[in-house]
């Protein structure tokens, strides 16, 4: 459904670009400056700026569409295999309970443990605004109640964005001398999560949730557009410090 929406968007974008191209072509074919009083040089400069702006917009649109397709294609992959641990990306809480999206991720991680695919869970998530308990601590209580032994649960409570989820989880992996990890999140989140883990030197595989709370066409499309924006931002600013990068949660 999502890939259909993406391709539909491409067709619409192409049509829009064609219309804009015709308009731009007509504009650039004018023989006289729009503002004769400013002279031919001013008009030529204006036309040059339009060409540059059109080129930049075209490049940005192409990159955005390419990334959206890549995110969707990767969301269809399931690389689940035996690993030392599962790193669960945080997704917020509601009061003292993990959000529905977070619960789906935790349930998948619990299943991985119960199937002996991983031997430990690394739960991520810091403190929300005004919170006295971290998201990871609430997640820990949730998986404890589901029968996961305390010795198999590890939490990091400092992260607020995906980059920090991976950054601080890596410290736990190093302390425990674990070499491999499965990444657990929603399917459309997996490419960004996997890319960040790879950039942090973690030997990881994607293990997307088997179901998602983003079920409607509109919800999935919004999630895809959001992920495309953040993934594109991360690829552009990946080597900047986390605290200075506000567009790559």
Automatic annotation (TrEMBL):
Keyword match Oxidoreductase: no
Membrane is among the record's keywords: yes
GO CC annotation terms, alphabetical: plasma membrane
Protein origin, superkingdom: Bacteria
Entries under InterPro entries matching the protein: Cell_Envelope_Assoc, DUF218, Rossmann-like_a/b/a_fold
Residue intervals passing through the bilayer: 48-72
Boundaries of every DUF218 domain copy: 84-228
Pfam families reported for this sequence: DUF218
Keywords tagged on the record: Membrane, Transmembrane, Transmembrane helix
PANTHER family the UniProt entry points to: DUF218 DOMAIN-CONTAINING PROTEIN (PTHR30336:SF20), INNER MEMBRANE PROTEIN, PROBABLE PERMEASE (PTHR30336)
Protein name per UniProt: Putative secreted protein
Organism: Salmonella heidelberg (strain SL476)
Biological classification of the source: Bacteria, Pseudomonadati, Pseudomonadota, Gammaproteobacteria, Enterobacterales
């Amino acid at each position: 459904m999502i890939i259909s929406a993406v391709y539909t968007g491409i067709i619409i974008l192409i049509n829009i670009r064609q219309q804009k191209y015709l308009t731009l072509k007509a504009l650039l074919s004018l023989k006289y400056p729009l503002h004769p009083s400013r002279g031919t040089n001013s008009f030529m400069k204006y036309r040059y700026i339009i060409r540059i702006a059109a080129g930049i917009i075209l490049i940005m649109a192409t990159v955005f569409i390419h990334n959206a397709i890549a995110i969707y294609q990767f969301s269809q992959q399931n690389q689940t295999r035996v690993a030392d641990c599962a790193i669960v990306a945080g997704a917020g809480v509601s009061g003292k309970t993990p959000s529905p999206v977070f619960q789906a991720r935790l349930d998948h991680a619990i299943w991985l443990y119960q199937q002996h695919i991983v031997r430990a869970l690394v739960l991520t998530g810091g403190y929300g605004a005004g919170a006295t308990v971290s998201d990871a601590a609430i997640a820990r209580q949730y998986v404890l109640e589901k029968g996961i032994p305390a010795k198999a649960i590890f939490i990091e409570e400092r992260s607020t964005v995906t980059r920090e989820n991976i950054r601080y989880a890596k410290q736990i992996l190093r302390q425990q001398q674990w070499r491999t990890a499965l990444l657990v999140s929603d399917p459309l989140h997996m490419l960004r999560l996997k890319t960040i883990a790879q950039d942090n030197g973690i030997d990881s595989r994607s293990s997307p949730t088997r179901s998602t709370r983003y079920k409607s066409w509109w919800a999935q499309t919004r999630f895809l557009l959001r992920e495309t924006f953040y993934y594109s931002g991360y690829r552009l600013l990946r080597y900047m410090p986390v605290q200075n990068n506000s567009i790559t949660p």
